[in-house]
Amino acid sequence: MSGDYEGPDIRTGGGFEAEGGAHGGWTRWADMTAALDGAVPVPEVFPRTDGRASFYRGKVNAVVGESEGGKSLLVQAACAQALGDGESVVYLDFEDTPISVAHRLRSLGGEADAIATRFHYIQPEGFLPASECEALLEALDLIGPAIVVVDGLTACMESLGLETSSNKDAATVFRVLLNPLTECGAAVITIHHVTKANDGRGTYGLGAVTLKNLIGGAQYGIETEEATRHAPGRCGASALTIHKDRGGGVRVWARSKMWATFETDSKPTGEVDTFDNPTYRTTWALKVPGESWGGPTACMEAISRHLVAEGESLSLRAIHAADLGAKFGKDIRTNALGLLVANGHVSKIGKGGTKGTSAGYLSAKPYREPSADDLAEAERARSDSNL
Fold it and tell me: Which pLDDT belongs to residue 81?
C-alpha cells in the first residue's frame, strides 16, 4: 500500500487525536486507489495433478480431520514437494518427534540433503515470551520458507495457556502467533482435530468457531475410510473437501465441495534402517476428483503461452526454469509438456539424450485451458455415456 494517502482526521473525545496518539491504530486509512492496483491472492502452494494449487502464501490455511485420517501425512507431502522444488519449510510440531517426521519425509520422496538443510523443525515447549516470538519471526525472514506448519493446533493453544473452546482465546492465538507467522510470505498451514461425534460437526474443527472464522486462506477437511487408511506397505486414499476459501481461488476449480483425492502407495524398498527395520517408499498424488479433467491444464496453457511468446524451440531445462506466472513444479511441467506434445500443441525437435544435445520444444498450435463450465459439461457427458 502507498504511504501517501492519509484520509480525513477522525474526531475523538471532542477534539482531533494528535499524530502518534492512542488511537493511531484506528485512524490509518487504507489507500483504496493502491488497493485497486493490488493483486488478488491466488493459491500457490501444493498443486493438484492439474496444476491448481491448494494453499495461499501469506495466509493462514488449515487441514482438519479425525485422528489417523492422514492430516499430517498430507501436509508432509506438501512439505516434501516444496523441498523438491528447492524451497524451505519450517515445521512447528506439538505432537510428534523429529525422527518420525524426518523418516516420513524421506519416505515421501524428500532428499536427505534437502531435509537436513532446508527443513527447519522445532518442538515448542511452554509459553511464548515476546522475545522468543520476535526471534522466531526474524528467523523466518532469514529462511524465507514456502510453508510454515503448525502441527497440533489444540496442543499449541494449550502450551500457550489458551482454551480451544474459547472464541477469545482463538482470536488470541491468531493475533499473537498464527498471523505473525504469515508475515514472511509463507503459506501457514495448521493441522487440527475434529470432534469425535459426526452429528453436528459441520465444517468446523475441534473447539471455538473462531478457529475457522479467522482463517484467511483455505481450510480443508480430510476424510479417510477405514479400508483406505494410509499406512506403511499399503495403499491409502483420502477425500479432501473445501470447508472455507476466503480468496475464492480454490473453490472456482472445485467439483462442488470436493477439492482432491489424496492417494498413497507405500511399498518396501528392500532395505533396512540402522535399527534393522524395513524402510518404505511412498508414492503419492493429489488428484483432481475422478482424474477426468484432462491433466495439468493450467500449466499446459502457461507453457503454451510461453512457447508462443518465445517464438523458438526451448529445451526442457529452459521450460523448467521459465517464469510461467505461477508456481508449477518440475514434475507438473514435464507432465504438462508431454500432454501438449501428445495432443499436437507442441512439436518435439530432436530426440535428446545424445551427449551434447537435447530435444527442443516448439509451439505448433496454442493451447487454452477449458473453463470450469466446459470441464463440468464434459464430465456430465462422460457420465451420461456410461449409463
Answer: 96
- Residues spanned by the domain of 18: 1-38
**Alpha carbon separation from 323 to 130, 327, 336, 360 (Å, rounded):** 39, 9, 15, 18
Can you tell me the mean pLDDT for 215-239? Answer: 92
**67 closest CA partner among 258, 229, 236:** 229
Rounded Cα distance, 220 and 191, in Å: 10
3-state secondary structure of 77: helix
Is the same domain home to 273 and 308? Answer: no
Domain end, chosen from 258, 291, 324, is at 291
196: exposed, middle or buried (Cβ count in 10 Å: 0-12, 13-18, 19+): exposed
Taking CA atoms, 124 is separated from 60, 121, 127, 132, 136, in Å, by 19, 10, 9, 11, 11
**83-97, 158-172, 255-269, 323-337: range with highest mean pLDDT:** 83-97
Whole-model pTM: value is: 0.74
**Same domain, yes or no: 206 and 70:** yes
The Cα–Cα gap between 70 and 210 comes to 24
pLDDT at 363 over 90: yes
Which pairing describes strands 218-223 and 60-65: parallel, antiparallel, or unpaired? parallel
User: Do residue 19 and residue 61 come from a single domain?
Assistant: no
C-alpha cell at 334: 514435464
Query: Of the residues 240, 257, 291, which one is the last residue of a structural domain?
Result: 291
